[in-house]
Specification:
Helix content is 41%, strand content 15%. With 263 residues, it is of the alpha/beta class. Strand 4, helix 6 and strand 5 form a beta-alpha-beta unit.
Length: 263
Amino acid sequence: MHNYPDAASLVRALRPDEPVTLLRPHAATRAARFFVEKFPGKSLYAVKANPSPALLETLWAAGITHYDVASLGEVRLVHKFLPEAKLCFMHPVKSERAIAQAYHNHGVKTFSLDSREELNKIVRATAKDGVLATDLELCVRIRVSSDHAKLSLAAKFGAEPSEVADLLVATRQAADSLGIAFHVGSQAMTPLAYAEAMEQVRAAIVAASVTVDIVDVGGGFPSVYPGMEPPPLEAYFETIHRTFEDLPISYSAELWCEPGRAL
């Protein structure tokens, strides 16, 4: 591995004509500690943002213990380099084989879903000899607005409002811990995005009359790019914490987020 003071120095020295991965461990450590110390809950690193083993180990050393994995390949990768990490399979569409291997071979107990079909798939894949799993953490992903984000994810994943209540009730019956998850889109430029999404979480809980143990606000935390100067992340954290505290949820409910590029 080569060391350079900045990207421009690497370009001058190597003149690469293929993509090059640059690691900034000090910056990653600083960002991880910021989330660990400032975010009022648990931060799950979204591995798809950069699956470099060196970065994973840097984040672990800085206090990131939970990892949002979106594929069986990411499950295997993180489990190999960080065997004690908590892996959360948060892609809402997975193959039955991937679910089974993640659960039975790698100890993954946390899964996201946004349909009854996916719920049934998880229940089947985690059963053994006809006995259903009793230790699942299942997060129902709901569809929320991406109006405040630079890249919308509104049409990609998430249960429709008309489907959420029934799906939460059904998932509660299969889950040891029930969660609600959402994603406001990439590069959310105002904390209002999370406040509005939390109102949809409130409506879903009231409509379903279920006990919720986890609220996962997903990613979307903005980075500073040319022409994009969002409010400080502390403003996002304050809004999320305030709206989380107002939800009708379990007294011991956990608050999660899934930063990717922000870490």
